[in-house]
């Protein structure tokens, strides 16, 4: 154990004492939690918090496909009937153009743990979903000039914010997703080419990276913003993968978790380099392309720009809240990202038993991790989840941890 700590300290020079401060999960606890998970395959749903409040819900339809609904508590109910759009062309659009970075397997991250020969094991995850027809207003928009280049498909997501439609770009048969967002729900804007656009679209575009879902175009109508985004043909979010693997009694191996973790780490490094903080890192916001086994960060709806001053409002999911915000009601965005990456890693390796049973447990006890994990990953978890934010490594320093150099 001392040899591991010595290797870590020499390589990154950032880990202090008690780096192996973890709370092992006993086998009896794993079994009891396992039984609970089998009876309730989706335990406690996680809340997404902002000033006005978000709640993410999952519900199952007859085909067992998880659907998401995000409800903003603003005193109004989501609209059920949508008026037809005016029979005029859309106000305007911004074409971002294609990314000059490859989003295929040819991209090689700088992580020491990246293995280009690693083959995915999720090929059998082919969604069997009865997608519903898009709402009436989307069908009306299909005849407008800015949407003429897209063949509209089925509805793949919905909420009070709007809808997400599967579509195909006619010129090259490229699968895309069209995310329609109500203009009245957008509160933050950024300037691009002399126009004010939603901060979500701007920040996601700034963070362009092979492990971030790309945005190709922004279309503005009378009532909606439409984000034209990358859509892997066969994909599944990491939360569903973890749940399915747990139900099959074969959770992710360290090698599998390392691959996805390294890719999301690279994505967040890119975000910070471009002055962007995602602020809601969790398995639900990670999409896995099941054909290439690549993980992609999605949903920049709560993202912000990096700032020198501490944040005084928490955006994100309560279970990922950094402990310093609980005590001081403020936190550094970059240090909070490291904390969220630590919680994410535990979720990937221990999907039934969380790092902390209650949020405030982080202030008084070490994270809980399964006993069978390697000493290296236990060391990394305790380092990421250091209750003192100034003692956490930077995202780039995390890449130097010996766990990424392990071949098993």
TrEMBL record:
Biased composition (Basic residues): 67-80
Enzyme nomenclature, EC number: 2.7.11.1
Keyword set includes Transferase: yes
UniProt region (Disordered), positions on chain: 1-95
One term under GO cellular component: cytoplasm
Enzyme class at the top of the EC tree: transferase
InterPro entries in the record: Kinase-like_dom_sf, PIM_Ser/Thr_kinase, Prot_kinase_dom, Protein_kinase_ATP_BS, Ser/Thr_kinase_AS
Compartment list: Host cytoplasm
Location (main, coarse): host cell
Biased amino acid composition, Polar residues: 84-95
Domain (Protein kinase): residue spans on this chain: 150-404
Keyword tags: ATP-binding, Host cytoplasm, Kinase, Nucleotide-binding, Serine/threonine-protein kinase, Transferase
A Pfam family of this chain: Pkinase
Similarity comment text for this entry: Belongs to the protein kinase superfamily.
Protein name in UniProt: Serine/threonine-protein kinase 1
Source species taxonomy: Eukaryota, Metazoa, Cnidaria, Anthozoa, Hexacorallia
């Amino acid at each position: 154990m001392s040899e591991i700590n010595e290797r870590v300290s020499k390589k990154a020079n950032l880990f202090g004492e008690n780096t192996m401060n973890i709370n092992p999960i006993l086998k009896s606890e794993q079994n009891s939690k396992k039984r609970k998970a089998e009876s309730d395959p989706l335990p406690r749903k996680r809340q997404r918090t902002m000033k006005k409040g978000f709640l993410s819900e999952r519900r199952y339809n007859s085909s067992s496909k998880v659907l998401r609904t995000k409800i903003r508590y603003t005193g109004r109910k989501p609209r059920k009937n949508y008026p037809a759009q005016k029979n005029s062309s859309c106000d305007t659009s911004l074409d971002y153009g294609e990314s000059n970075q490859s989003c295929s397997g040819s991209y090689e991250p700088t992580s020491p743990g990246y293995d280009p020969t690693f083959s995915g094991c999720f090929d059998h995850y082919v969604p069997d979903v009865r997608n519903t027809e898009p709402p009436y207003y989307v069908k009306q928009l299909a005849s407008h000039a800015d949407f003429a280049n897209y063949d509209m498909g089925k509805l793949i997501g919905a909420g009070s914010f709007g809808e997400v439609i599967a579509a195909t770009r006619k010129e090259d048969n490229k699968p895309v997703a069209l995310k329609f967002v109500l203009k009245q729900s957008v509160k933050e804007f950024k300037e691009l080419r002399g126009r004010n656009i939603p901060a979500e679209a701007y920040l996601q575009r700034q963070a362009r990276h092979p492990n971030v879902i790309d945005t190709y175009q922004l279309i503005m109508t009378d009532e909606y913003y439409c984000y034209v985004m990358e859509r892997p043909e066969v994909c599944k979010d990491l939360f569903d993968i973890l749940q399915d693997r747990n139900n099959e009694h074969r959770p992710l191996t360290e090698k599998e978790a390392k691959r996805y973790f390294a890719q999301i780490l690279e994505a967040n490094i890119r975000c910070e380099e471009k002055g962007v903080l995602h602020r809601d890192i969790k398995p639900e916001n990670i999409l896995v392309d099941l054909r290439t086994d690549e993980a992609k960060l999605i949903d920049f709806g709560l993202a912000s720009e990096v700032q020198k001053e501490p944040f005084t409002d928490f955006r994100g999911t309560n279970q990922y809240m950094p402990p310093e915000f609980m005590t001081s009601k403020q936190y550094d965005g970059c240090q909070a990202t490291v904390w969220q990456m630590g919680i994410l890693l535990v979720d990937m390796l221990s999907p039934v038993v969380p790092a902390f049973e209650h949020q405030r447990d982080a202030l008084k006890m070490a994270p809980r991790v399964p006993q069978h994990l390697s000493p290296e990953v236990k060391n990394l978890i305790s380092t990421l989840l250091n209750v003192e934010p100034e003692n956490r490594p930077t995202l780039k320093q995390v890449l130097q941890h010996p766990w990424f150099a392990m071949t098993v």
